[in-house]
Amino acid sequence: MSEAVTHSVTTPPGLLASLDPLLREWLPRQRWFAGKGRPVTGFSLVSATELLPPTAKLGLYHLLVRAHQPPAAAPQTAAPPDPHGHPGDTYQLLIGVREALPPRLAPALIGHLTEGPLAGRTVYEALYDTRPAELLLEALRTQDRIGGLRFEKDPDRDIRPGLVPRVSTAEQSNSSVVYGDTFILKLLRRVVPGVNPDLELPLALARQGCARVPAPVAWMLADAADGVPAQAAPAESEEPYPTAYPGETTYVLGVLQPFVQGATDGWELALRELAKGEDFQAEARALGRATAEVHTALARALPTVTLGHLQMRALVDGMIERLEAAAQAVPTLHPYVPGLLSAFEALGQLAEEGHTWTAQRVHGDLHLGQCLRSPSGEWSLIDFEGEPARPLAERRMPQPALRDVAGMLRSFDYAAHSAGTPAPQWAEACRAAYCSGYAEVGGRDPRHDPVLLRACETDKAIYEVVYEARHRPDWLPVPLAAVRRLALSSRST
Ligand SMILES: Nc1ncnc2c1ncn2[C@@H]1O[C@H](COP(=O)(O)OP(=O)(O)O)[C@@H](O)[C@H]1O
Ligand SMILES: O=P(O)(O)O[C@H]1O[C@H](CO)[C@@H](O[C@H]2O[C@H](CO)[C@@H](O)[C@H](O)[C@H]2O)[C@H](O)[C@H]1O
Fold first, then answer.
1. What are the tens digits of pLDDT across the range 204-219?
2. Which residues are CB-neighbours of 125 under 8 A, at least 6 positions away?
3. Does one domain contain both 155 and 69?
4. 463 CA to middle of ligand 1, Å?
5. Which 3 state secondary structure label does DSSP give 39?
6. 208 domain-assigned
7. Which GO terms describe its biological process (predicted)?
């Protein structure tokens, strides 16, 4: 590992080089590794912080590591240019070192060090271990500063000491630890310097008193001392942000939120109802209302803009570019390209005729799995990170709110395809109920804007094709079926 380190190097010299072969093998196998399908050619260190010195029992290191990889065929990775000339994404790792790994930590094994100052010891994913997870919560609780790591907290919120941690087993893009069923700490895995919407938006919503989103209690930051400039968003938040302002170079590494106890996510619930042959319309309607509540609060909290002809052209061009990149990455898409393009061109045409739309900050990757229902039936929306593969600046741009609506409509379709037998009527009924619920609170039915809705849904289905091809090839038929349907319906209108 090349040690292009800029701050807080308190690790034993040589440890990082000895980790290199272990990480090359382990990192690409992690669900949250974003560069799947491309070889890791090396690592450089962005920052290294010793959290516990290496005693016989335990040593603990916080690392930000840049994995060097050749660029993807399609421009899907959001990695900014590497200051040392290597393209690649930066990952947050919590590395534990022990003489021997107790059996309960066997699934957390990364490998055995064969050289360096700690040769003979075992390296593992320390988030699974009680003491390291406790250490993070304690640092947040006491607003600690360790090396380049800053732990901050909402001054009005208390964190009780001694909450017992357990790692969440949910399938996710990052990693989470639940503390005593009271809080959940999401540690971001692929990190990018700049204002992170996963902290920015829930904070803004909390200030609006929006009850649909668990309010951040504390957060973990690091200074991006590697010289990579933060990607400033075109429309800036007017809300105070913890310590980083756009243009600054700060990584958001983690966010602590209240844990919604006994919650079921919308995906699980929808599949359960489908399996029982039950409809999901009441819940879909409630989800539509919740989405509209969040959109209304976001439009109040953060700037909105009117999208005229030029801005819409840029939006449409973006959709077309993504389609072209997707067709390159997933050639199965080729026959559908003309039909899909016509969905985008129809939107461009409307804009040319003088139609305008409002854009605002949105969730950015809304689907059933991002909706949590409490045992009392209240819905919360989580995970405001946006589509993880998109550049941060793009994720923070005001968008038509129908982008989120389209994400949910796609999700009902996904659920209907995942049932034993496809259930198109179930999906149609959910989609209609969701739009009605949205109109009840938002004042406008998404179906009254069919051209924009179809373009957004098409854009989302194309994103899903690329996502599934990269992460879950078995699922590819689900968005491909939608692509086929959307390509045909766009051509016939
Ligand atoms: N506030 C919360 N209360 C209860 N469970 C939560 C909460 N936030 C997240 N979760 C659980 O953790 C999972 C992953 O969270 P999410 O923010 O979507 O992370 P990721 O970006 O890694 O996918 C969710 O699907 C849900 O099961
Ligand atoms: O990890 P995230 O939740 O941030 O989102 C990514 O993974 C999702 C899958 O886990 C993916 O969602 C797609 O599959 C869902 C079913 O598993 C379905 O409900 C969604 O509608 C569909 O988009 C999401 O696109 C991706 O960004």
1. 999 999 999 999 999 9
2. 93, 94, 95, 96, 108, 109, 110
3. no
4. 21
5. coil
6. yes
7. glycogen biosynthetic process
